[in-house]
């Protein structure tokens, strides 16, 4: 029985009941993760090592980098990917435990409503992530960062720090914003597809 649960859960995650949902899984699971895993590491992998301030001392560089990056972009986006997957994964786990086929999800109103709620939760999490990303990273990475180092001592106040590869990071930021917007649009489109298919089913009956 446990193997059937795992099989149903896997099929539900890989092949959602809607066409747009399947495309979203492909887009989300493949392109977005590949972009973050490969290109994200290439752009942000050695950022802390190349982040330099004046005076160029290790403790000052570390202090200012922690101020510049309260959380590294790779960690933030990885958490975003995992958290956004939770509502859909929870629904498909529920469907697997109840032995609900993907075809039945859009045929029974209660399953349809629960699935729509999971999609709405996914949209809400994407919106929250979008807002947090703006708050943490903004839309542009500037080449010069002014670090408030007053807590290090009286002789340190505002320290100038150079941000490596700022233009590449700006492009990557815009790309991640774009991925988030596309994901939200796909989720909204999926809800409309569900409503349309339910109406067609009711008309046929």
Give me the oligomer status: single chain
How widely separated are the two ends? 34 Å
Give the biggest beta sheet.
Answer: 3 strands, antiparallel
Give me the number of helical elements.
8
| Regions with little confidence, pLDDT below 50 for 5+ residues | none
Please report the total strand number as a whole number.
3
Cα gyration radius (Å): 22 Å
**Helical residue percent?**
over 70%
Going across the biggest sheet, name each strand in turn: 1-3-2
Could you spell the SSE succession in H and E letters? HHHEHHHHEEH
Structural class: mainly alpha
- The portion of residues forming beta strands comes to 5-15%
| Mean pLDDT rating | 80
Spatial shape: elongated
How would you explain this protein's 3D organization?
The chain has 205 residues and is mainly alpha-helical. The chain has eight helices and three strands. The protein has helices spanning 2-14, 19-44, 47-50, 58-68, 73-97, 102-105, 109-137, 166-204, and strands at residues 52-54, 144-148, 158-162. The chain has a three-stranded antiparallel sheet. Helix 1 (2-14) packs across helix 5 (73-97) and helix 2 (19-44) runs antiparallel to helix 5 (73-97). The two termini are 34 Å apart.
């Amino acid at each position: 029985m446990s193997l059937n649960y795992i099989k149903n859960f896997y099929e539900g995650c890989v092949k959602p009941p809607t066409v747009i949902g399947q495309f979203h899984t492909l887009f989300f699971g493949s392109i977005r993760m590949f972009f973050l895993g490969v290109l994200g590491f290439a752009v942000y992998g050695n950022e802390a090592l190349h982040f330099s301030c004046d005076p160029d001392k290790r403790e000052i560089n570390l202090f200012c980098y922690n101020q510049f990056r309260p959380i590294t972009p790779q960690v933030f986006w990885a958490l975003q990917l995992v958290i956004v997957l939770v509502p859909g994964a929870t629904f498909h786990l529920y469907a697997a435990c109840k032995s609900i086929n993907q075809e039945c999800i859009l045929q029974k109103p209660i399953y349809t409503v629960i699935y729509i709620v999971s999609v709405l939760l996914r949209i809400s999490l994407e919106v929250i992530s979008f807002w947090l990303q703006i708050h943490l990273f903004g839309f542009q990475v500037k080449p010069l960062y002014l670090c408030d180092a007053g807590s290090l001592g009286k002789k340190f106040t505002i320290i100038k720090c150079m941000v490596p590869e700022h233009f590449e990071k700006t492009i990557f930021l815009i790309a991640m914003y774009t991925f988030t917007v596309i994901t939200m649009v796909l989720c909204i489109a999926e809800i409309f597809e569900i409503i349309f298919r339910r109406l067609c089913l009711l008309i046929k009956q």
